[in-house]
Amino acid sequence: MGSSDNTEKALEQFQSLALVEDGWIPTQGYLILVLDRDADAGLFDLLDIAKRFDMDGDIRIITDVRHDGELRDTIHLESVDRVEPPLS
Asked: 78 forms bridges with which residues in the sheet?
């Protein structure tokens, strides 16, 4: 999948989850999502969306990232295409 449309569609799906408070695409095939610690659930829903859009090549949770002036927890998702480029 890995195209810009798919990355944007994936971001829209992630942002519909209560667990995700904000998100952006710094580069193609890479997403950063700001997590809401007060959300009751949603991690497995987030992982299901990542798999559906091939954004599960590399997933990292990074704590204490400054976002909008406060320290937040984020999850960084990289597409399978970026992590495992196709063999030619």
From this structure: 30, 58
Max Cα distance, the chain (Å): 45
Under a CB-based contact definition with an 8 Å cutoff, are residues 74 and 35 in contact? yes
Q: How far apart are the first and last CA of the chain?
A: 17
- Contact (Cβ atoms closer than 8 angstroms) between residue 21 and residue 34: yes
Q: CA-CA distance, 32 to 38, in Å (whole number)? A: 18
pTM reported for the whole predicted model: 0.80
**pLDDT average, residue stretch 18-41:** 90
Computed over every residue of the chain, the mean pLDDT equals 88
Residue 74: count other Cβ atoms within 10 Å of its Cβ. Answer: 20
Give the length of the chain.
88
| Helix, strand, coil tally for the chain in percent (to 5) | 30, 40, 35
- The answer, yes or no, to whether residue 3 has pLDDT greater than 80, is no
